[in-house]
Each structure stands twice: as structure tokens, then as C-alpha cells.
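Aim 2 progress update. The chain analyzed this quarter is reproduced below.
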Amino acid sequence: MSKKSWVWTAVTAAIVLTGLVVTVLLTGCDNLRSFKGGSLSKGETAYQYSSDPNYYTERYRPQYHLSPPYGNMSDPNGMVYFEGEYHQFYQNSGQWGHAVSKDLVHWEHLDVALARDSLGEIWSGSAVVDWNDTSGFFGGKAGLVAIFTHFKGGVQSQSIAYSKDKGRTWTKYEGNPVIPNPGLKDFRDPKVFWHEPSDSWVMIVSAGDRVRFYRSPNLKTWELASEFGSDQGSHAAVWECPDLFELPVEGTKEKKWVLTVSIGNNALTKGSTMQYFIGSFDGKTFTNDNKPSDVLWTDYGKDFYAAVSYSDIPDGRRIWLGWMSNWRYPFAMPTDGWKGNMSIPRELRLREVEGQGLRLIQEPVEELQMLRGKKVSLPEQPLDGGHNPFAGIKGTSYELETELTVQPNAKFTFNLRQGNDQATVVSYDAKTGQLTFDRTHSGETSFEQGFAETMSAPVRLINNKIKLRFFVDSSSVELFVNDGEIVLSNLIFPDPTSSGLELTAEGGVTLNEAHYYPMRSVWRDEDPDGLKPLRIVFGKDSLDVPVGESRKMAAAVLPFSSSQQIRWETSDPAIAAVETAEDGVIVKGLQMGSAEIKATSADGSVSATFDVFVFDNKK
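Predicted C-alpha cells:
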């Protein structure tokens, strides 16, 4: 993709997981079972948690999404499954960061895999298992080959590297580049796969306003086979990060080929986005089944980009994930020390949608269910004026499954991460058939002029019903509608104390069912339903109070299932006085100066502090 020069200078060194870790072996748990990927035994799984209770607890840090320890994370790269591990490489300021997982959920950070060299920066690409050693790199055994774009002096070309030790170290091919630049400004992001019917490797690579297909017997010598796309779909901006794979059609024995491309930042779509095509592929040429003018959008949110799929998953599932950001504001988000995270992994297939034809379906992988805490289920109930069925439920990282029956002119609204005058609003209007996602008042939005925005998607009722499945994390919402027919993925940056959940409706709406699951962190061994306090969080980092006036600081004890009682102290009673309030503390400014306000849990096990600055408002 167009990496430009978004660089965090601190990230030229290898990414290393620091601090102590604890290896956890869980057996017999209800939420753990044998998953399709083949890496987990029935009833048990092993992974490492950090022993540092503050690891990955920074403001806005995702708790079950992959994010880098520090520095930038953008395009997912080199996604492959090999010898019991999912490899997640990613763009890390012109090189490949690296993490591995046995279950697509818990990740171990490894050293940078591919660093920039004399041929330039290492841009996006893919990785494959060379099972039959067609490359000759592995002495007749199987090994990993990475295919990537070299970028230097404005020129993009395709190169390869190989690993004989499960991706821990890499050797770049001495004959790089394997495909020199053919005179194109944009020539990048190769995705490679083995095409069994034609007994050949196939590469799809972006080339400005189209993609090119190349073929190779050995991953080292390539020949151009065809092009696709110059007159197809949306051309709102440059095409990037293509992928091509075959998917089953639900309820049939039929399969179709799906070609996906990302579209760079542009005014027409108000940022970068993704589209896909459905058709056929014969090993050389892709043919679109739809009209050239048809545009099929992958995600109706703003923060799902450069998605590509894992290679060589043994159970045959097609799984992908994307970068949760947008080239409109790629690394502008208000996170401290790291920028960017991945979406949750999604399983793909095709479905015949009434009145539309075949459409791409995305659903969260079943492995995520191992993160679920205790289920809270709500009974069927009509939604009327002032009743909120989710009153009393609080959370900042959770999954929520719902189904609603909606009358023809009815409306309903979910307020997610509600609190401190903040809410992410998801609403549906049956009359217009539009689902709206509003992050205007979702939290911090000042880092980008247009971030406080509203998005919408056309959503059909099925027998007057709609299914909504939310995955909410510290700084994101991924919404899957009607079993994955429509998806909206968006970043949000609410206060850590904005934890409310509300549902309202008018015009005749019934909540048929709802299931709420607090989600476990994948970084620390913590019970999301525990009664023991783990930490105290504040709405803001500090508080400014005029002399003679009072201000409130929101606070919460995590997990939310623990006692929310907090004892408050001030370091200087002459400057600031404190008074316990619901969900926080009232601080009164008495005279100019600063003081430290300390919060302690009722059992005395955890505490936290913030600074208050008292100033004279009349000067």
C-alpha cells in the first residue's frame, strides 16, 4: 500500500515482548474446545500471559484485538498457518512486524521479521507454505516463503525471502527482485497462492487502477498472465492490497472466486475503503459475474482496510482480518506509544441474498468464544418509552448478540460505551431501511477534523427481524448484521469510565433475545466476572478546577463486577477538597495550587491517583 513515510523513529529496532510472562494451561473449561484450525487439543490450550498487571492497560489499548507493543501497525502481511501456528506479519514503518498465535486469539510478539535493506523498504505482501519445495530453498522439505514489495527511490518491485525455522529468521533471495518494476508508478502488495488445477503459483498484485496476474512454477521466475479491473467497480482512488480466493456458497455445493481490493484515501468515499468482485478464475484470468459498474462494498464503516486472508489453514476455512484505521488519519489516533490494531479475525463465505444476488459474508471466528465471560441473557420483551433493558450492565470490552422484531415504521437505538456525555450510537429506521453508526459524540475526536462522523448502510429486515452482533473493545466497535451480511467496523476513543449500554425504541419494536458476554483480555490472566478489584480507572488524566468551584472526576473499579465503592483522599486539603459521588468524586478548588487525589478500593487492595490543578478563574 502507499506507505508514504509514516515513521515512528523508535521502531527501527526489533519488536520484543519485555517483562515476565506466565504460561497458562487451561483444561476442562466450558469455553475451550477443539477448534477447526487443528492447533488446540480438546479441552486444553496453552498460551502466555504477562505477569505484569499493568501490561496492555494503557488508555484505549485493545484487550482482545492484536496491537503492537509500541510503534506503528498498519497493513496485515504474510498471513499463513504452518506447523501449529498462525503467523501475523504486519507493516511496521517499512518493515514486517511479527506475531504468532496457536488459536487466532492469544498472540506472542516476535522480533521484526523482514527489515529494510539495500533494495529498500519492505512493503506489503504475503507468505505461503512451499510444501513441495518448488523453490529449492528447503532441501526437499516444506518451508515458508514470503513475497513482498521492495520500495526504493519511488520504484516498487516484487521480492521474496524464505525461512527454514518456522518464520523466526529469514533469508532474502539473492536474485531479488523476482519481478522488476515494469514501468508502473503503483506496483505493489503481491498476494500469492498455489492454483492446483493449473499446477502453478499465482500472484495477484496491484497496478494502479487494476490488478495483474503472474504465474510461476517455483516462486522465483514469473510470467505475466493477465490483467483485471481497469473498467470494473470503483476507481475512487488507487487499488491496493488485493486478494483472490475461492469460497463456498451457503446451502449449495457451488464455489465461486472472490477478488478483493482496497481503495486508497479519497474524497468520494471520505477516506480509504474496500470492495470485492465475485466471478470465476481459470488460473490465468478472472472474470467478473456482475456488471462492470456494480460496486460491492466490503465494510460500511471507516476502519477496515487492507484485509487479506490466511494461507494454508488445514481445515479449509477462509479467514481474514484487516487494519482498523483509515488512510485519512492513519497514525493520528490519540494512543500513546503505539498506533494501530487489527480487526478480529473473520470467516468468509458467500450467500445468495434476496433481491441482490451472491454477497460476501463475514462472521467472527468461533475461536473468539473462548474469551467469553459469564453470559447475561435478557428475556423477550417489548421496548417502550423509558425502559432500558440493559440498565445495570456495564462494560468496555464485550460481545453482544441481539435479535429484534421491528414494525414497518419503527425505529430503535443502541447507545454503546455511554457515559460522561459520550455515546456511540447505532440506530435503525425501518421506514428507510438504513442502519446508522454515529460516532459524533463517541469520545475523543479532535485529532482529525472529520472523525466525528456518521455512517450508514442499507439493511433489510428478514421476516420483520434484524440480528445485530456487536464486538466492543476499548477503542473499537465491529458490528455484524444479519449473520454477517453487512459489517460496520469503526474506531472510537471514549473515556475508560464510559461503560453504559442502552437500548430505546419507538413505533413497535420487540427485543426477541439478547446475550451479553464480558470479554477476557488476551494479554493478562484476569477474570472479567471476578469480585476482586484489579485496577481503578479515571475518566480523564487530570482535572482543572477554578477556585471556589467544583468539578467531577468519573472513576470505576475494574472488573465492573467487583465492588465500585472507592475511598478518596487529597494530598493537600487546603488546596482541594474531595466528596464521594456516584461513579466518581467531586473535587472542590479551595486555593490556587496543585494536589494529588488518591482513590482506593473498598478492600484496600488497589489504588490510583490523578492530579488536580486549582486556578484563579478571575485572573
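The radius of gyration is 25 Å. Confidence is low (pLDDT under 50) at residues 2-44. These observations will guide the mutagenesis experiments scheduled for the next reporting period.
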